[in-house]
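Data deposition worksheet. Section B asks for the primary sequence of the deposited chain exactly as it was used as input, without tags or linkers unless they were present during the calculation. Section C holds the resulting structure in token form. Section D is free text for depositor observations; keep each observation to a single sentence. Incomplete worksheets are returned to the depositor.
Section A, Depositor: J.P.
Section B:
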Amino acid sequence: MKLYLCIACCLLSLISSSQKVVDVDKTSGTAGNLFYAVGGEPYVNVKFVRLVSGSPYFKDQWMKGAATSAAGILFKSGIVKLDIMDNEVHFLDVAEKEMIVGLPLKDITLTDTLTGKSYHFVNTTYGFNYPSVKKGWYLQAASGAAGLYQYFIKQLRENRPFNSATTEQTIVTLEEFYILYKSNLVRVKKPKDVPLILSDKKAELEVYLKKLDAQKASNSEQLVALVTYYNSLLE
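Section C:
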């Protein structure tokens, strides 16, 4: 009888030690390793073993990360990467093994430790849900009364070089921009579209756009500058 009791106690001890409970009331804004507590799955790179150029990630280097779950819980993770192609967040566990976050995330902020620059991404499935918009991670390029979001499209292309038995893979990155204004998310294809979308300041934006054209700024730079300028007019 004593033997059975000992076995039962051992089993209960093993079960208890294998479970990791996160106190929801105490997690917001605190510990740095909470992704470990909620678990994930190991990352196995079998998809891009023949990749010669391009990347499925927003940036290849590991960055500091902080994320909000779909349930509204703030998680601060140590080191993460954002996989744009598969809409996954990768992190390093305590043994520095690459893992995939297993819980739905609403948004994530990546910080480059070398430059100090931060990148805030919103998941359209949980952050703001618009039926006509492609699902995935959108980079917030400007915020305020009008928001500007950048959407990256990763396309995998395969090519077999002449006299080669191996097929090479290339990932090409395309991008789209969207303006969030008065609860409407509208795609903007060129800077000239911005004054038409943010029409209450149309005249001011058109004058500012001419200045940007004279400076020969890129389309993406002009879009960010125009939306930022619009928001400053409302302050």
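Section D:
Residues 1-34 have pLDDT under 50 and may be disordered.
Residues 55 and 136 are 17 Å apart (CA to CA).
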